[in-house]
Protein: Bilirubin oxidase
Organism: Bathymodiolus azoricus thioautotrophic gill symbiont
Amino acid sequence: MDSMRGMKGNTVLVNGVVSPVLKAKKSLLRLRLVNGSNARTYHLSFNDNRVFTIIGSDGGLLEHSIKANTLRLAPAERVEILVDVSDGGRPILQHAAAQESSSMGGMGMMGGMMNNERQDMDIFQIDASDTLKSTSSIPKNLVKHNNPQQSAVSKQRRLVLQMQMGPRMMLGGNAFSINGKTMDVNRIDEVVKAGSTEIWHLENTSMMPHPLHIHNVQFKVIARRGGVKGHELGFKDVVLVHPRERVSVIMKFPEFRDAKIPYMYHCHILEHEDRGMMGQFVVV
Ligand SMILES: [Cu+2]
């Protein structure tokens, strides 16, 4: 079960520490959160439901700061937030598991219980009881993005994320594939032109969500079910693709080219990439 869904432990570490407390001044705190878990997608909010400000994504600052009280962070995704603790509060950042199991397709209750799937978790606490008080304001506009242009798109590709049930899944073989192929280090799957702009359509036909990670480029999400929101408005290199969802991303590839040494794209649930859900592309 773990190698199919990805191992989800029952203890979360922050910088190697269980349930740490971050001593802070009464101020505006800037935090960069990296989901280093191999399989768990976090649904984060503070226990006092305080509003925070999202300012960055995988690839840097957003164009505009965004107020939120919850965010989703899939394996390997990064987000940057500002938390106002000038009130001297002691908020706890928490993961709400119910949010995740609702997106797990037909996997049901049993898998959930076996896999710590339904476990809510305290991630860490901020203790802003320190006396010094500083104030700062949050700018609305942060940076201007140089977005890849739809009019420059020279190629569109489809990556279909699949899983095979039955004996192959149960016996631990290569049960996860992209476009029907499992990872082969001796095969180049896609050839991309240096400096070109492309749209990739990521289609998940399996019953599990897959955080797809593409090396070498930063992309913009241009279409997904329910629209593009929050930190997904920024430049990204990982995007969560839900069961039966199609996510489209646009990207301009760097000018650097090398016909021999490939880059990878893969699911960032480690058990899935280990069992085949990875491909290779070269830039020429
Ligand atoms: Cu996956």
User: Anything to note?
Assistant: Residues 108-114 form the longest helix (7 residues).
